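Support request, priority: normal
Reporter: lab tech (M.K.)
Component: structure prediction queue

Hi team, I submitted a job for Peptide ABC transporter permease from Dyella japonica A8 yesterday, and the status page still shows it as pending. I've pasted the exact input below so you can check whether something in the sequence is tripping the parser. The sequence length should be 443 residues. Please let me know if I need to resubmit or if it's stuck on your end.
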Amino acid sequence: MRYNLMLAWHGLRRFPRSTVLAVLTVAMGLAATMTTLALLHQLTADPLPGRSSHLYLAWVDTVHAKPQQNQSLNEITVENYHRIKLGDARELLHDHRAAWQAAMASVFTELTGDGEQPRHARDYVLATTGEFMPLLGVSLRSGRGWTPAEDAAHTPLVVIDSEMAQHLYGTTDVLGRDLKLGHGVFRIIGVSVPFRPQPHFYELAAFGFGDRRRDEAFVPLSALLDAGVDLAGSDGCDEDAPKQKTLFGTDAIHCASLSYWVDLPDRRQAADFLAYLQHYAENQTSLAGYGKPAHAELTGVGTWLSKQNVVPDNVRLNAWLAGSFLLLCMANVAGLLAARFLRRGAEIGVRRALGAPRRAIFQQHVFEASMICLIGGALALPLTLFGLWTLRLQDSGFTDLARLDPAMFAALFLLALVVGVVTGWLPAWRASRVEPGLQVKSA
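Reply from support: The job had stalled in the queue. We restarted it manually and it finished. Here are the results:
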């Protein structure tokens, strides 16, 4: 094997122009493929590994309105994020049929620190209920979350993440300090580690991907509503709801504006919770006359992301196009290798006449093809990093996720090796079938 490796290396140096051309072709094909696959890998990754498999979005349709189609006649899609009304959320929280559960809505609002010259920021805040931390796996650096009793008492408390604390107060030692939200003053009782699931599966109405747009603080839902902060967004409102005071205001009582997530560790508990939800929907006698069947759904994280088409279609299309480009590059490299190997027919004939078995000839040329692709793989790494950098320059809401992780780095070289074997197999097989007598005579 060592002798065949040495011959393969020598073969590369004998034809430098075709070697460079083959290496560049492989590098460009691999770089284009890895750039798109790295982005697709990040977009389709599990947002909460080990936890999202037993998280479900619970939904019951209790809006006092006639059924509406998601796709209207003018092809405008009506938003449906399976949100529920505040009253339903309170009923479900009171019954507490899941291991952990929380109602939530991501709100874009102004945050103001304390002191004589307080700093300001406008960012996302998650209005939620007490069990959001164990439900979503939010980690604390210091302090605590709020209790159900404090939730019920509308106590103005807040858990702020360390980066926002640093921005507003210049330190993360902020326990006991005040944070103004709306017209309310909230006491900071906890500092969390920045929470960045990708995508933000639990609140797709606010945003999907992106590190710059995430929840910077967590606030009791009831206290935030008391402070006059609007939830700003709903899937629909009761037809008999009071008239809104503002054009874009959301009445949490009469509008479906809250996502309701539950933790159900196994399928039996999920089935029991769905039966409970369906029973809850069937008991909504106030829906009579709106032509709505009792409707409840329980949707897992993966199914939910698929329903919402979280991964853009153009990313999948680009991955297919890049894969096709790689196949084209492989075909070109296979042609180059076949031409190189056939030019060495006399040399191969002499080796065969001197007793070299076909297996050794085949091995030598597969090694040569694999070396070309491995060198191409090494060159593809900086090209891939350059491609990911150019993707991050685009502001498409998700392109800042385009990064090469260690798993994809290993996959790049594995792919390069596979490409080398695949492209070199046929030319190497043909070279090994050379008849030594004819080639020696022609030489």
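The first strand starts at residue 55 and ends at 60. Confidence is low (pLDDT under 50) at residues 72-76. Let us know if anything else looks off. Ticket resolved.
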